[in-house]
Amino acid sequence: MQKLIIKGKKSLTGTVKISGSKNATLPILASTILSNNKITIKNVPFVKDVITMSELLKYLGSDIKLNFKKKKIFINNNKKSFKTLAPYNFVKTMRAGIIVLGPLLSKFGKARVSLPGGCAIGTRPVDIHLFGLKKLGAKIKIKDGYIHAEATNGLFGNKIKLPSISVGATENLIIAATYAYGTTLIKNCACEPEIKDLINFLKKMGANIKWTGKREIKVIGTQNFNAVNYSVMFDRIEAGTFIIAGALVGKKIKITNIDTNILKKELDILKKMGLKFKTQKNKIIIFYSKNIKPVSIKTEAYPGFPTDLQAQIMVLMTKANGVSKIKENIFENRFMHVPELNRMGAKIKVSGNLSTINFSEELNGAEVMATDLRASVSLVLAGLIAKNRTIINRVYHLDRGYENLEKKLRNCGAKITRVNN
Ligand code: UD1
């Protein structure tokens, strides 16, 4: 198993080019099952989850080629026959594997997809995905850890009001409805930028999808798709992570390849905390921020503050001059990083879904354990500001979602190395 070793307190200067979004790439890749035409996807982040999704598509029968150097994926499913079984070994490491359920079922009339199970941050059920697919006419049974879904004559458009907001369920249903017969109206859907990116991709491929309200989408099904060449949006969580790194240890860090309009909520909060930055449409320059102010925030579905940036902003709050609070509203167990940050000298208390963060004069390097993707990167941020050496175990969590994190940090002057045990 690999470890990261960070020597803290080095100030960073340089430019960081943000990669394409993992959370946009995954549903876009799943949706390619619908098409028999040529597809080129650009600005692909080759993180572990994207590789796993590509391997799953290959296993299913997709003719998929990865060009790591050019950050492109080529797919041409013409004349290919598909399997309709997504086995456990793919879905257990990457929960987004559940998103192949919608396209397989819609196109081939049946699918068997492993139940993803829980993970460190919560139980993460898939009931909303299944609720929506049943509304489109699917017959679904759960047996032996698998979802067995059938729609012998295809799926048929319907009105679906989601019982609560889910990013993955919204994506699964948009993709399924794209190939279904007739019109589907999805109400109370998620409206994350990654969902907008998926819709833009599908529309470019020939799908008929419209936003009919802030949380309402209308999809008119089609079975014919054009060849498409599409560039994935930037990773807004990676961008947020580097903005926070810049405020903590950056002399001056330029963050490029982004769209600052999409980061509005995050930037508003960081401004309230007194961070010093200059924004242009596609870049941010962030300076070391001395007098950080405490704030109280809650995580919410977009356009609220993202749960995927909660662990990172918590590290920034340890440097705020007073008491900050975070209410985690999306996942029931997403404070796994707190005990590790406290071992490094942070003063954070957790009560249910509320954490209270007090100012810490200084964090101290320690040996810590990464528990999930975003928790891991918060430990990297903590390591960058800590005295002495921080050793982070289980870094495979980081590799699921951050492309070249160490290289990007090293290019700005960070002392960070990866070692094998
Ligand atoms: C996606 C993101 C993840 C992000 C999350 C919330 C991807 C690949 N992952 O995950 O990084 O943290 O959105 O922004 O895009 N829920 C149910 N039943 C369901 C589905 C979800 O109860 O059928 C619950 C979940 O347990 C969670 C909440 O709804 O408490 C939101 O989950 P959801 O939006 O579905 O997250 P994911 O799509 O899994």
How does the overall form come out from the CA principal axes? globular
The CATH architecture term of the largest domain is: Alpha-beta prism
Radius of gyration: 22 Å
- Count of separate structural domains: 2
- Cα end-to-end separation: 6 Å
Give the name of the CATH superfamily of the largest domain.
Enolpyruvate transferase domain
Strand content: 25-35%
**CATH topology term of the largest domain:** UDP-n-acetylglucosamine1-carboxyvinyl-transferase, Chain
Which strand order do you get reading across the main beta sheet? 22-23-1-24
Q: Give the class-level CATH name of the largest domain.
A: Alpha Beta
What is the number of beta strands?
24
Overall pLDDT: 95
**Helix proportion:** 25-40%
- Structural class call reads alpha/beta
Per DSSP, the total helix count is 14
Sheet with the most strands? 4 strands, mixed
Task: Describe this protein's structure.
The chain is of the alpha/beta class. It has two domains: 205 residues, Enolpyruvate transferase domain (UDP-n-acetylglucosamine1-carboxyvinyl-transferase, Chain, Alpha-beta prism), CATH 3.65.10.10; 210 residues, UDP-n-acetylglucosamine1-carboxyvinyl-transferase, Chain (Alpha-beta prism), CATH 3.65.10.10. Helices cover 31% and strands 27% of the residues. It is built from 14 helices and 24 strands. A four-stranded mixed sheet has the order 22-23-1-24, covered by helices on one side. Strands 2-15-17-16 form a four-stranded mixed sheet. The chain is globular. The model has no long low-confidence stretch (mean pLDDT 95). Bound molecules: uridine-diphosphate-N-acetylglucosamine (UD1). The site of uridine-diphosphate-N-acetylglucosamine has 21 residues, from α1, α5 and α6.
